[in-house]
């Protein structure tokens, strides 16, 4: 069942006990891929009793990374969770609405991740900007925040339930794969530079004004050939801006080869 490949990413969890409860919830829903991003004072022995002996293997196999970008590397879909609305946090999905898209990516051989923020504040705008979609769990207005493991269990339950209604049929290699997380971030960086060069984005707080562009592209699956097309457009825009004296082309940084398949 492809749901086993779903990543659960905990960004800076504060309490080891909560990590243990998350591992137990993951085991309940048949998911075993846990990633902890810069956890605060994480101690597996404090987490283990909440995981129970049955889910300890999930804790032992958990990967720890220093940044959220590392945790999302290689994914074709990153779904962040939020309890806050407003600003650029629009078009939020419910867990039930998010499940079909998550399952579709997994069935196509891609990797998807569910991202959960710290217990006390959740994900900030900087962190949600790395996510393709945002999910909000509806709750009574008297108490809209959920315990971390409760939130994880609800999202995984919806994914698990949806997987039961859609028999898994292995597919051959896709003719054109989805753009990876790293490629999407490189594209957004080049878009931001190109839009700044033509004064569409202003220098002040350009990251903030870039958010609706990111959200627009998160509405559909970006394929590798489309990624190459948009990267080429960005290069042409920056070239025209440089020739008109409005911008300057910078060498692309990073080790990703954008010329291959």
Q: Could you characterize the architecture of this molecule?
A:
This protein has two domains: 164 residues, 3-Layer(aba) Sandwich (Alpha/beta knot); 63 residues, Helicase, Ruva Protein, domain 3, CATH 1.10.8. The radius of gyration is 20 Å and the shape is globular. The relative contact order is 0.14. The chain has 261 residues and is of the alpha/beta class. A six-stranded parallel β-sheet has the order 3-2-1-5-4-6. The longest helix is centred in the C-terminal third of the chain and has 20 residues. It contains nine helices and six strands. It is 46% helix and 10% strand. α1 runs parallel beside α2. β1, α1 and β2 form a beta-alpha-beta unit.
Secondary structure layout plus pairing:
Blueprint: E1 7-11, H1 16-28, E2 33-37, H2 44-61, E3 63-65, H3 68-72, E4 77-81, H4 95-107, E5 112-116, H5 125-128, E6 133-135, H6 148-165, H7 181-197, H8 206-217, H9 224-243
Parallel strand pairs: 1-2, 1-5, 2-3, 4-5, 4-6
Range of strand content: 5-15%
| CATH domain class name of the largest domain | Alpha Beta
Global structural class = alpha/beta
- Spatial arrangement of strands, main beta sheet: 3-2-1-5-4-6
Q: Can you tell me the CATH architecture of the largest domain?
A: 3-Layer(aba) Sandwich
Secondary structure: helix percent: 40-55%
Mean pLDDT: 85
In terms of per-residue confidence, which ranges show pLDDT below 50 for 5 or more consecutive residues? 248-261
- How many domain modules? 2
- Structure summary, number of beta strands: 6
Shape descriptor reads globular
Q: How far apart, in Å, are the first and last alpha carbons?
A: 27 Å
Count of separate DSSP helical elements: 9
Spell out the helices and strands N to C.
EHEHEHEHEHEHHHH
State the CATH topology of the largest domain: Alpha/beta knot
| Assigned CATH superfamily of the largest domain | SPOUT methyltransferase, trefoil knot domain
Radius of gyration: 20 Å
The largest β sheet comes out as: 6 strands, parallel
